[in-house]
Write a structure and sequence with these properties.
Blueprint: H1 3-11, H2 24-30, H3 40-48
Length: 51
Amino acid sequence: MSDRFATSLANLGVENRHSVLANFPDVLAKGSDPEVTVTGTRLAAQAVRPA
């Protein structure tokens, strides 16, 4: 992640970032096909549920 992007997230108050891809680095660096570990809907639901 670039310093500029990290700073932008920090300014938004984002402390934790999660990827739904099992192979995120390979997708970015090698153009691999994404391997989804969890649906975006499930991740969003987990984000709004109390711990």
